[in-house]
Amino acid sequence: QVQLVESGGGSVQAGGSPRLSCAASGSIFSINGMGWYRQAPGKQRELVAGITSGDSTNYSDSVKGRFTISRDNAKNTEYLQMNSLKPEDTAVYYCNADVTSVILGRNVRRGYWGRGTQVTVSS
Q1: Mean per-residue pLDDT, 59-75
Q2: Cα(77)–Cα(105) distance, integer angstroms
Q3: Half-sphere exposure of residue 6, counting CA atoms within 13 Å on the CB side?
Q4: CA distance 53 to 105
Q5: CB proximity list for 36: less than 8 A, separation 6 or greater
Q6: What are 38-41's contacts with CB under 8 Å, separation 24+?
Q7: Which residues pair with 60 in a beta bridge?
Q8: Reported confidence tier of residue 32, pLDDT bands at 50, 70, 90
Q9: Cα(79)–Cα(1) distance, integer angstroms
Q10: 52-78 mean pLDDT
Q11: CA-CA 20 to 30 A from 21: which of 2, 3, 75, 103?
């Protein structure tokens, strides 16, 4: 089993620059793609940013140029640096990881989610 734990959320002023972290632990052979999603009240969960095992990144149009996703493979951790925050960035932020584990000698690949961390941006 694999656990993802987010940290770094909280209440920030508009224009702030917090950084979210997501640490993966457990039965990990390798981590493939990783990503950050968010869900605002009354809205569907949406992709914010993604990063491949080769460090290719993609961003939603709403955060492009303001947010930066990165990963530290040695620590099984991904980060989301958020700059120039706006009130509309208020949401619960979830990390996601596509993980390969070795179970009974076989490679098993599946996606995992963290429990989420609240980010509230006040104007």
Answers
A1: 97
A2: 25
A3: 26
A4: 23
A5: 20, 22, 47, 48, 49, 50, 69, 78, 80, 93, 94, 95, 96
A6: 38/89, 38/91, 38/92, 38/93, 38/94, 38/119, 39/91, 39/92, 39/94, 39/116, 40/88, 40/90, 40/91, 40/92
A7: none
A8: very high
A9: 22
A10: 97
A11: 103
